[in-house]
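Supplementary Methods S3. Input chains for the assembly prediction are listed below.
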Amino acid sequence: MGDKPLWEQIGTSFVQHYYQLFDTNRPQLESIYTEESCLTWEGEQFHGKTAIIQKISSLPFHKIAHSITAQDHQPTPDSCILSMVVGQLKADDDQVLGFHQSFLLKGFNNAWVCTNEVFRLALHNV
Amino acid sequence: MSDGDYDYLIKFLALGDSGVGKTTFLYQYTDAKFNSKFITTVGIDFREKRVVYKSNGPGGVSGRGQRIHLQLWDTAGQERFRSLTTAFFRDAMGFLLLFDLTSEQSFLNVRNWMSQLQMHAYCENPDIVLCGNKCDLTDQRAVKEEEAKELADKYGIPYFETSASSGQNVSQAVEVLLDLIMKRMERCVDKSWIPEGVMQSNGHSSTEQLSNSKDQGKCSC
Amino acid sequence: MLLYELDFKMIVDQACRAAEEFVNIYYETIDKRRRVLPKLYMDKATLVWNGNAITGQDSLGEFFEMLPSSEFRVNTLDCQPVHEQATQGQPTVLVVTCGIVKFEGSKYRYFNQTFLLTTHAVPTNSLPVWKIASDSFRFQDWAS
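Predicted structure tokens for the full assembly:
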């Protein structure tokens, strides 16, 4: 991992950390958001860490597992990191569904926080 | 399976909270003999079954058996992540609304599912059968039969206590729903121009006619 | 709703309207006026296309010229304002689209795209011009 650019290391670590917490203990994701963070979850908007954690924690499943197919990270002109993840997830005993998720990360007090996040299932109900 | 050798193609959708047993119910009904087709990118899981439907004509005389190709759709769990869109509901002709007899919350949510149906389905009073599933788990029952029956009566829909694991009442629930749909079609579709004994095309003419009445505003049946 | 939340809602609505307009222009440009597509990007913008990073007007120009002609159809669009805590003062919007695309010579594929749009002040024009600062594109296909 030492050869990779810094933003890629940070992005990859963040993504790993995020899904690990999501899959094992969602309320602990609280530390990655701020009072100004925005989440759009399947088209619904949430603003601020409290509202975001409430939404994520209340999703109706007991078990969840994410599997990442691809992740892309790039530095932005404002020294943030833009990360995009494409993958699959499985909730309880349901079928595997595709998803994609985008994150904007900002360095804050020696840690990286997520200021913006968008989640969508890979569904095309046309 | 889709060899075109049937009279009607009928689509049902199984609805209800995650975990109430929709997938097991449909698996049970189709005897697990037919492969399920999961369309990953649409989030619809569906199974198919061929049945013969016999209606009673006027005067109680049994008509010719109609060959029905049933498509049973399942939400594939997407409702855990999002509200179901109208696109999901609109092609279904009938709905199997399931709740779990061991989960009071899933019973309370029947009201929400009914509102969604009234909003998104092809008309304001679509054909629905309510099923209280997992009736085999007698020790864990949390909803009384009378309560459920009362709710079903309020909506004017049939109620069955089913067990997707044992099969109890599964076929009956689907058959009653099919009967409701076929009777609705008989009312809505003017068949007077179709001579006796002439086969209809592969279900498309009847569904098209149903869609036509949908396009003209809500079905008046 | 608190006054703060009302203001925030207005900001979101404004951001989303700008984003929708931009997205329409972007996909029309990529389909029908490919040559001028690089103009929608800032000078030092980066595009990561299925894992390949492309930076700057010249490289973007070459890349888009080489890309076969396209037919895009957007199914969903999500946008959010990016709070100034994450920007250096310029209004910025995060936009995520997904849909279907057909490139000439290939069959239809599902795609996801994430943009960071930022305003680019043009002194002679009172309306802000939005340009892409960052862009990330991936296909999403499943064996079904």
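The domain at 6-120 of chain A is CATH 3.10.450.50 (Nuclear Transport Factor 2; Chain: A,). Helices of chain A lie at 6-24, 49-57.
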